[in-house]
Amino acid sequence: MRSQILLSPILLVLLALVGHVYARRVIPSFGDITLKITGADGSDIRSETLTSPPRISKPLTLGSGSKLTLNVPVKDDKGKALSLQHLFLGARNDKTRDEKTLVCASKGTGVFTCELDQSTLDKLHPGPHTLTLYAGSVDTEPLAHKLGTAEFSIAGPSTKGSSDWDVFQPLPEITHKFRPADKMPNKILSLTFSGLVLAPWLLLLGSYIVLGANFTNLFSSSVSFISGSAFMGSLSLCVLLYYVYWVKLNLFQLLGYGSLLGLITAILGRQALVARAAMRSAGVPRSVKTE
Amino acid sequence: MAKSSPTQASPASPAGAVSASAQSVAASASNAAAQQAFLVRRLVTSYQKNTPQSLKLIDTYLVFVMLTGIIQFVYVLLAGTYPYNSFLAGFGASVGSFVLAANLRMQVNPENKEFKDTSTERAFADFAFASLVLFGFVVNFLG
């Protein structure tokens, strides 16, 4: 009960403050706007006064080097001069729907000057634009007032940036440079050395014949013959598997087939070498010393 | 030491001294060459007489593998390294085979006491298995 008694005056004060703020928001309006267009040489192209509510009767035409000056008086609902925090002039391109805003400078006493010169024109695209005045302040109602249309006969913004930080421009096209082809060796030289590298085989086989290499121990017993022949056959199959891998297979296939063939080769090899060791233990001569 | 010739000039004269020293140098050089030839002949004779047949067969294989490696290397020097992976595969096969065969020779040699507990069959089995693995890598690298 006591808290309700205390709260009610606080709420009343708050309500009064809010009401005071909203009750005091001024509705601004524009007085007679002075419009002036000067050429690049400073000559007066167009001058007129736009009576309130200000509207441009005939579309403006601005070329390169031209300057548009608007003197905008702002008044409250009682007709007195009103100081605003901001007044902007917006130029909206009717084709691209892109809008650029220009801050109007305050001269004090509620009069603003909007100057649209070459530096602003450089950022605009050519074509018809709609000019709008935007007024805003904390204690006023916001206001957007369309003045009229203006035709900008300008070149348009440059694609190059105005500062070194503007790097958004097309760069030279990157073309892939393929690695130059390797120098191929002389065909005759390659063929000659292909024959030369096979020549030591003749030396090897000839030396084996001279030294008396033979297969007599292979035929010394049936076990030796079978296991030895099978072992040498499996070794040949391993070599064949390597050739097929080089030509056709991939590594996983080689490992698959190779593990199976390797297991068979290991078993057969063990059998062949056990038979050979048995022959050696039984006294069959392992080698013959040549005189 | 060669005897001096009767027609040699007396050592007392300078010309005589020079010719005497030149003759002694020539004689010592020919002596060294003769000694080297004798040592080589003795090495060859001893090798042929005392080396078992199995070791001679392995030595022949070693010479064969060495020659193939040398020929491949000479080719690379003359023709260039393209394709380099093929050269590495071939040369690696020669070098690897040489190493494995040399190890086999060491293990099979009856004069080598270090491997007296290793049978020749076991040595050959190791050689065969290692050769298969080596040629597996070689074929993989051929390209």
From TrEMBL, chain A:
Residues 178-280 form the Ribophorin II C-terminal domain. Its main location: endoplasmic reticulum. One of its GO terms (biological process) is protein N-linked glycosylation. Keywords: Endoplasmic reticulum, Membrane, Signal, Transmembrane, Transmembrane helix. It comes from the Eukaryota. The keyword Coiled coil does not apply. Residues 1-23 form the signal peptide. The keyword Iron does not apply. One of its GO terms (cellular component) is oligosaccharyltransferase complex. It is a multi-pass membrane protein. It is found in: Endoplasmic reticulum membrane. The chain crosses the membrane at residues 188-211, 223-245, 251-269. InterPro entries: Ribophorin_II_C, Swp1. PANTHER family: DOLICHYL-DIPHOSPHOOLIGOSACCHARIDE--PROTEIN GLYCOSYLTRANSFERASE SUBUNIT 2 (PTHR12640:SF0), RIBOPHORIN II (PTHR12640). This is Ribophorin II C-terminal domain-containing protein.
Automatic annotation (TrEMBL), chain B:
GO terms for cellular component: oligosaccharyltransferase complex. It is a multi-pass membrane protein. It is found in: Endoplasmic reticulum membrane. Pathway: Protein modification; protein glycosylation. Belongs to the DAD/OST2 family. Subunit of the oligosaccharyl transferase (OST) complex that catalyzes the initial transfer of a defined glycan (Glc(3)Man(9)GlcNAc(2) in eukaryotes) from the lipid carrier dolichol-pyrophosphate to an asparagine residue within an Asn-X-Ser/Thr consensus motif in nascent polypeptide chains, the first step in protein N-glycosylation. N-glycosylation occurs cotranslationally and the complex associates with the Sec61 complex at the channel-forming translocon complex that mediates protein translocation across the endoplasmic reticulum (ER). All subunits are required for a maximal enzyme activity. Component of the oligosaccharyltransferase (OST) complex. PANTHER family: DOLICHYL-DIPHOSPHOOLIGOSACCHARIDE--PROTEIN GLYCOSYLTRANSFERASE SUBUNIT DAD1. This is Dolichyl-diphosphooligosaccharide--protein glycosyltransferase subunit OST2. It comes from Spizellomyces punctatus (strain DAOM BR117).
